[in-house]
Predict the structure.
Amino acid sequence: MKVLKLEEITALLVSGALYDKTNDLVGGRLPLTSAEKMNIKIYDYAKQNNYQLDLSNHSRGGITASVALQRANREGLIGIPIRQSRFFGTATHVQDYADQLAKVNKYTYTVNNEDGTTSQQDSQALLAVHYTDFVGRTPLLGLRSKYIVGGNKPTGGVEDKWFLYSHSSYFGKVPEEYLKDEEGYNIDQNGNRVSKAVENPYLEDFDEKWDPKGIKDNPSLPILIKPNKN
């Protein structure tokens, strides 16, 4: 049995990422990965069975979603029922994805308003990317292009800290001050119940990287990316 060395594994990962990025840029015209093929099957199943999709994509997974959508649309699978597609530190350029949703996929659905009326809602693309995220945006000015990494505009976080690792630091909600389990009991970092409250290390990480302006402020949440009008 051959044992791969670390540098060989790294080379495989980098070459795979470059291939995926290239396929994203050329509209999904290259042979698909297994993950991209599976995404298309899910899209087709959802449409055929009247399901709606809310998607969350991180890092390279955003490319998978983008390539799959472009290929599916090109092959005639239009109106894929995507309500929202959320991207966190993604390697795909979300403005292009938003344009694909609006101008090619063209899915709309009916929503019930609070006043009893109904209205039509378009698919939405949402993005969260930290200023220092090396995949979603990269702090290196010369490499800040959608043709190299995500090339997305930052949506929040501290600036001017090149070596701050933020790629895995997106939070669905503001971390609690102390660690607690689902029943509200104090726990330690191993999940064991304890008598004294233990400070939540994720809150410190959140504050350091996102610099919230208030107790409930969560600048790591994704924001809406509107499609271009032209």
Notes: The helical segments are 6-25, 34-48, 61-74, 94-105, 201-210.
